[in-house]
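dumping this here so i dont lose it
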């Protein structure tokens, strides 16, 4: 895509990534893609804010060249060192060896170790001002752990644009439209921002809230992240969403149930249908995921936002069905705590899934009353009990909110 002017003298540049299957080597984006947004400020001095993954460097350089000769850049501002935003740095250094790299103090050691760059680098301080001339003054705001310890944001004082890097970003390559008001798929980008938030940022809710708090003093017209849409019409919308999502780490999540299940021969699955019927009959939304086929990336947003978790899986070699263990371990890694949970599943002779479920649910501080192992295939009578089990669980989830 050609460079796009965001405000006079401020340009979006960036590349869409539709070929990487796993973001950070973990999170699937084959269908959704992702964008690496960067920005050029064309003041008397020329600054580049954020870069891109080591990928499509030539496209990025041509975009810069549409605005200014890349060889004459004055500053390269690194808001965040993760290689999805810095991968092309060495290439850029060769093209613009005189451009000074500006970053947070903590980034300097990383620059040395990731890219072996130690010269022409300067640490900027919190709230430090850099005048570019030509109506552009930049101010740096340290926002550690949104996403890494060295992360900062850059604010263009005159244009009132906040370059927020990972914060307020999302998966989803750009489909021609880069601004929220031009985009005709707002639901897609909102869902992908949530998936991105839960996959990438959710372990750091306090730093996110601290950063949002710190930004309150700024007069912001536009939020320009380094992934996904630029929020020009409703900058407050994405900030409010991030604040809401960060608050889920402490407060009970939305009423609603995530039903995770796995099965070897379909016997536990028969009960899944009965339990789901019970939950739905109580008027609670229930989202069902087969953990054998669904990547945690897609499950986590539901686990993260909903209060109820139902786990249906059989006993396997004396323990809980391993694909379910994997999913629950990911929930543990992402500290999805303080949920209301219940377990059900089929076994053949000894059972044993109960013990694993109980141990991990306790580790996660999940509240649970029902842990229900049944032998073999559920009878019609047992399925009726499954409906009651689901209804009872939904009642408990609703009561938690009351
Ligand atoms: C590989 C394998 C290992 C199993 N290990 C156990 C076990 O250790 N203890 C037990 O009670 N049942 C065990 N079972 C029996 C299953 O738990 C039982 O068949 C159950 O009905 C499977 O439910 P599903 O069709 O939902 O997978 C095992 C079954 C398989 C195929
Ligand atoms: Fe990051
Ligand atoms: Fe990123």
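and the seq i came up w/
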């Amino acid at each position: 895509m050609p460079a796009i002017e965001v405000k006079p003298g401020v340009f979006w540049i960036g590349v869409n990534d539709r070929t990487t299957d796993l973001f950070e080597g973990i999170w699937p984006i084959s269908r959704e893609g992702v964008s690496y947004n960067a920005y050029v400020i064309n003041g008397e001095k020329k600054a580049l804010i954020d870069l891109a993954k080591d990928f499509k460097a030539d496209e990025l350089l041509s975009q810069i060249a549409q605005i200014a000769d890349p060889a004459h850049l004055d500053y390269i501002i690194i808001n965040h060192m993760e290689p999805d935003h810095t991968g092309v740095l060495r290439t850029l250094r060769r093209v613009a060896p005189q451009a000074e790299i500006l970053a947070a103090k903590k980034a300097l050691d990383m620059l040395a170790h990731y890219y072996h760059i130690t010269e022409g680098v300067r640490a900027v301080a919190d709230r430090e001002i850099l005048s570019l001339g030509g109506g552009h003054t930049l101010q740096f705001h340290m926002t550690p752990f949104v996403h890494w310890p060295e992360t900062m944001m850059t604010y263009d004082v005159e244009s009132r644009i906040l370059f927020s890097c990972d914060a307020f970003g999302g998966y989803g390559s750009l489909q021609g439209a880069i601004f929220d008001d031009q985009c005709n798929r707002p639901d897609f980008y909102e869902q992908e921002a949530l998936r991105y938030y839960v996959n990438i940022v959710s372990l750091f809710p306090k730093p996110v809230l601290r950063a949002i708090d710190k930004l309150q003093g700024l007069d912001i017209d536009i939020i320009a992240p380094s992934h996904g849409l630029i929020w020009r019409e409703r900058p407050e919308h994405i900030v409010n969403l991030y604040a809401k999502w960060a608050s889920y780490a402490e407060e009970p999540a939305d009423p609603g149930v995530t039903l995770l299940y796995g099965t070897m021969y379909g016997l536990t699955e028969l009960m899944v249908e009965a339990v789901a019927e019970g939950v739905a009959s109580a008027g609670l939304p229930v989202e069902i995921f087969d953990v054998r086929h669904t990547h945690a990336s897609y499950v986590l947003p539901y686990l993260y936002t909903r209060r109820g978790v139902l786990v249906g899986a059989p006993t396997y070699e004396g323990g809980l069905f391993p694909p379910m263990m994997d999913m629950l371990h990911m929930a543990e890694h992402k500290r999805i705590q303080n949920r209301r949970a219940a377990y059900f599943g089929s076994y053949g002779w000894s059972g044993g899934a109960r013990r694993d479920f109980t141990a991990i649910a306790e580790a996660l501080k999940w509240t649970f009353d029902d842990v229900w192992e049944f032998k073999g295939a559920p009878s019609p009578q047992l399925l009726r009990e499954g409906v009651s089990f689901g209804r009872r669980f939904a009642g408990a989830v609703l009561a938690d909110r009351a």
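Residues 82, 84-85, 166, 226-227 surround fe (ii) ion (ligand 3) (CB under 6 Å).
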